[in-house]
Design a protein that fits this description.
With about 625 residues, the chain is α/β, with parallel strands linked by helices. It is built from 22 helices and 19 strands. The two termini are about 25 Å apart. It comes from Gordonia soli NBRC 108243. This is ATP-dependent endonuclease.
Length: about 625
């Protein structure tokens, strides 16, 4: 089983929206665009224990905090989920509620005229639609919510008064037992608190106990009996024994106590299973101390890995049942190699993984067809896989790390080589020093992308445009005809700059002053790696010859090994904005101006109204 589509109405920051999912899905988008909201919407529908929290929803879960409509009627939160790829067991369990689903048009065929004719058409599969509905109940002065099997409803005239007024309006309940068959697991980011590894209902340890087979009843009875029959008993500790005897003697004057010495006693707990659920905690000993402490005393990274490990055990216990594993930001407090290992395990072992992340080490584990871009257009929220026709698999694999960083960015600046990358970064750093109204490309969310050569630059424009990014491009003047599709691809750039020179070195030396060139040569000639084939003695080189010599030195020390040192050193000699190479400087100023005019999305992802701060129960 896997989630194929979710539709959201009036939940948190989403007024209306839908997201399409692949077998494995990486949800990407700007900060606070709605990634966490999508994950928590899925939990409301599919989480077995989620609806047993109180309250199920509250004021801040409604979009803009409006839970009463303009005409005084309660507004509803609605979250619809379509589940496909049902196993034989799931089909048997839900056979009364499954419907034929067209996976090409993303619609149920029973909603279309003459649907019976297309019931067995290509791309038509069995799907299970379910829905969460939540609203304010005036009679109870409280918020209510529940999940139901979703299907075309009967006419209102066919329903009795109670059914019309009910939350599901005649729909059958999608119960906790039904949800357990779906195998939904949710690992939150930064919310792995004290509850997760307790034995409270719905916690991870409680789920392990329940999935582990028979014996839970005996476990509770044995645990409570062991606490009651401790030897020596808690009450036999000297200080407690004296207090206990004093209490028994004094109470005996007023209360008809039993004759036993244990008429007043101390025990380790209330001796009920509910109390044990509250107080039992997992203790862990880690190197180098090897002393067992409550897991909450471990480091953040260790806690996250511990919770992740328990979730994988739960997934294994489900054996051949499909697991829908939702994971928020697995990179929290984890080093890069562990991020890769955790993500790789999830993608390989889970029936479906749905992941949000801001880490390139996580993102690079997903193939391009599994990347779902979340976006907003006014009040409309949507998420769809990127257009893989624009991204060749070989191109994505060879540039995986660069693509991962570009996916996280606001904009992409495609350059033709490493020297250009260094030059643009250095000019941006210089502009930051001399202009108060300029922000460095790193701070404005611009990713510099190395296309490899000048002819490759145009082909990346439609790729990044398909990711919903602003795309900029820059390259040298060509010395031969361009590729056939280059002109069309260039149209996809928001801005494109082609140099009047055939090499970046010519731009660097022709667009800076004589003072900058001489200062550059004075600096680099002292380096051990200065090219001896181009000698420089300040007194013997005329001003008119500086540009030619500087070009030779830059070309001799071009490449990854020397590029930053020499190109960066040249730009460092520029003391004013006028000193900087105008071709690169003006392009960066244009990009900066456009991005400042289009600020990053600042919608609140986890609350419904400005200033709202509803606390999420620890999980």
């Amino acid at each position: 089983m896997r989630v194929r589509q979710v539709e959201i109405e009036n939940f948190r920051g989403i007024v209306a929206g839908h997201v399409l999912f692949q077998q494995h899905t990486l949800l990407v988008g700007g900060n606070n665009i709605g990634k966490s909201t999508v994950c928590e919407a899925l939990e409301l529908v599919l989480g077995p224990e989620r609806l047993y929290r109180r309250p199920v929803i509250d004021e801040h879960d409604f979009s803009h905090g409006d839970y009463i409509g303009g005409e005084g009627d309660p507004r509803e939160i609605r979250i619809r989920v379509v589940l496909t790829d049902l196993s034989d067991e799931q089909l048997r369990r839900f056979f009364q509620h499954v419907r034929r689903w067209d996976d090409e048009t993303f619609s149920f065929i029973d909603e279309e005229p003459d649907s019976i004719q297309s019931a067995d058409g290509d791309g038509t599969v069995w799907a299970l639609p379910v829905i969460f509905i939540g609203r304010y109940d005036r009679e109870e002065d409280d918020f209510i919510g529940d999940t139901f099997f979703d299907h075309p409803l009967p006419e209102l005239d066919d329903l009795d008064e109670d059914e019309r007024a009910s939350l599901g309006a005649g729909r059958a309940q999608f119960s906790r037992l039904h949800k357990r068959v779906c195998g939904f697991i949710f690992l939150r980011a930064l919310r792995t608190g004290s509850r997760a590894l307790s034995l409270q209902r719905g916690s991870l340890l409680d789920s392990l106990l329940r999935l582990g087979g028979e014996g839970a009843e005996e476990m509770w009875r044995d645990a409570l009996g062991a606490l009651q029959n401790l030897d020596p008993a808690i009450g036999e500790i000297e200080q407690l024994r004296i207090i206990r005897e004093n209490i028994r003697t004094r109470l005996g004057k007023f209360v008809n106590l039993a004759p036993s010495e244990n008429a007043a006693a101390f025990f380790a707990s209330d001796l009920t299973r509910e109390h044990l659920r509250e107080v039992v905690r997992l203790f862990v000993a880690t190197q180098p101390s090897n002393h067992s402490v409550p897991f909450t005393k471990q480091g953040t990274g260790s806690i996250n890995l511990l919770v992740f490990a328990l979730l994988t055990i739960i997934a294994d216990l489900k054996e051949d049942q499909s697991v829908i594993f939702v994971m928020e930001e697995p990179e929290i407090a984890l080093p890069p190699h562990t991020q890769r290992r955790v993500t790789k395990y999830v993608v390989q072992q889970m029936g479906q993984s749905i992941v949000t992340s801001h880490s390139p080490y996580v993102i690079e584990q997903f193939d391009p067809e599994n990347v779902v871009i979340l976006s907003r257009d006014g009040n409309t929220f949507s998420g769809a896989p990127i257009d893989t026709t624009s991204v060749k698999p070989k191109t994505y694999r060879t540039q995986r790390r660069q693509f991962a960083e570009a996916i996280l960015s606001r904009a992409v600046f495609v350059l033709e080589g490493q020297t250009e990358m260094v030059a643009v970064h250095a000019v941006s750093s210089a502009l930051e020093q001399v202009r108060d109204d300029y922000s460095h490309v790193d701070l404005t969310g611009v990713t510099l992308f190395n296309a490899g050569n000048d002819r490759e630059v145009p082909r990346y424009a439609p790729i990044f445009k398909a990711l919903g990014k602003r795309v900029y491009g820059m390259r040298d003047k060509l010395n031969a005809p361009d590729a056939a599709d280059a002109a069309e691809n260039i149209k996809s750039f928001d801005e494109f700059w082609e140099s009047p020179e055939t090499g970046i070195e010519q731009i660097l030396v022709k667009q800076v002053s004589t003072r900058v060139l001489r200062s550059f040569l004075d600096e680099v000639v002292q380096r051990d790696d200065y090219p001896s084939s181009h000698p420089y003695v300040a007194e013997r080189v005329a001003d008119d010859d500086l540009a030619e010599l500087a070009v030779k030195v830059l070309k001799a020390r071009k490449g990854d090994a020397f590029g930053f040192g020499y190109t960066g050193t040249l730009i460092e000699q520029c003391e004013t904005e006028a000193d900087l190479p105008a071709f690169i400087r003006d392009a960066l100023l244009t990009i900066n101006e456009q991005l400042q005019d289009e600020p990053e999305l600042i919608l609140d992802d986890d609350t419904a109204a400005p200033g709202a701060g509803a606390a999420e129960p620890e999980e």
